[in-house]
Every structure is written in structure tokens, then in C-alpha cells.
């Protein structure tokens, strides 16, 4: 009885293997189209938090498609570097404006409006610098 079950199992496995390899009536199975990134990052505007939260990578045979992940990380890295550079430029300009505001004379009539406004203009020569 045991020998009969082993022979039947081998015949079933062989028949299924032959059907899959030869493809039966329709020929071999077609290659599956690879999944593409469904929610790409927007090319026409900066990336925001919602774009990153909604980003989903398609699965490949061994995990995620490395090209899609590398492209997304490169884009995010470039945008973060650009934002960091812009922040550094603005902080530098603000520090320069604050330094100019503390060293320059302020008239009493101008003092009230100067409290709420930081000028980005280049300061003129000071009184003690003039001949």
C-alpha cells in the first residue's frame, strides 16, 4: 500500500511539472511584468511630508527594487541638502542684519518701527567713521 502511494505521488508531481514546463495548450507561462513605482515623487514641486508618507515601493524577488529606492533616496537627499543650504543662507543673513542693527545708531523717531523690522540693507557709514 505504501509503495502504491509513493508511485502515485511521483506520477502526480511529474504530471504537474510537465504541465507547468510545457505550458499545456497555451504554451509556456508568460513572463510577469515587473511592478513599477506606483506613487512617484512629484517632479514639478518640492517633496513634502505627505509625499514621503504616501511613498510605497513595489516588491521584487529579493525585497524592493533597488533602483526605485535609490532614486527616491537621491531625490530626498538632494532636496534636504538644498533646504539646509537655504536655511544656512537665511540664518547668515539674519545674523548680519542683527549685527548691523546693534552697531548702527537708531534715532528716537525710528526706534519704534525698528523694533518690529529687521532691515537687510547694507548699513551706511557711522558717524565716528566719517572724517
From TrEMBL:
Residues 36-50, 112-131 have a biased composition (Basic and acidic residues). It comes from the Bacteria. Residues 24-50, 97-131 are annotated as: Disordered. This is DivIVA domain-containing protein. The lineage of its organism: Bacteria, Bacillati, Actinomycetota, Actinomycetes, Kitasatosporales.
